[in-house]
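Think of the structure tokens as a kind of shorthand, similar to the way a musician reads notation: each symbol stands for something richer, in this case the local conformation of the backbone. In the example below we present two proteins back to back. Begin with the first one, reading the sequence and then the tokens, and try to describe in your own words what changes along the chain.
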Amino acid sequence: MELERAIHEAVLEVARQRRDDLKAVAEDQRLTEDLGLGSLDLAQLVAMLEIRLGLDPFSTQTSVAAVRTVGDLCAAYRRCHAAPVRAAAGGSRS
């Protein structure tokens, strides 16, 4: 899926600032323990994804503390991406 690919690319870009030997990231990799991302790296990642995707799941739907892995991050963005669709579909009752 396009969304996951964009997230994986952004995670890889930020993680390579710490570990330039990384070739790819996997869904089950932990952002801090496995990829070595610190709090500033995570803030940079979220800002980068907000600019690239136009989405911020952490403003209302998901706690940043709940995101531990690349897969968790993808799931948060999938939920955020789907939320406007659900709201639009059920929001036009009078």
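Once you have a description of the first chain, move to the second and do the same.
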Amino acid sequence: MPYSLLNRYMDECRSIQQAEKEIEILCGFECDHHIDFASWYQESFLDNHWADYLCGAIHYIGKDERRLYYVGSLPRDKKLLSLYTDRYIEAIESGLYSFMVHPDLFASSFPNWDEDTKACSLAIIQSAKEHKMPLEINANGMRKPMMKTSQGRRWPYPMYQFWELAAQEGIDIVVNSDAHNPKHLDISHLGIYEMVKDLNITPLGWDVTTRSDGSKFLTLSRPTSESQ
């Protein structure tokens, strides 16, 4: 969607939000984090309650702004993996986001679980734990072709070893469809819930909170024993 259509899109979403009584509808944005835009995200989307939530991502990185690489198809350069790690942690530390998405997207470019991918994973997970930032297990990677690795075939992401470490650290985790099409909202057949169960992960629940001015925002919480 072109940026020029954003206001119209938001007006339409708000109209539906006010009219719909059967389900809760929130308006949020997945933002590629960049330090130069952090204050703009804060002022344009959060301070005025224009968005109900933001989630953070790192999709593109580069050693300089003249050449950017998509994280899902990086050259196998350890320096780029380190740069991704630093940028992702910077996004966590910004405090702008309700949760951070597909932290293991780098696994699409670095297929093998080794000391480098483990170090990247641990750094991101430890930062998320320190800052109480939920991380997203993203089901969209399960719709993509399987990859061959030295440990066998796997999805590009989610990367099992990453989430095994995350589970051991006890960080907050959300499960998300990342649906680019309405028919992709149903993820029950992809195997993601089986993976979550195998890792003994209890994902956070999605809740909606209403402010005194009537605006809404996303809240994430651990499910009660009755709702599990």
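Compare your description with these statements about the second chain. Residues 55-201 form a domain with the TIM Barrel fold (CATH 3.20.20.140).
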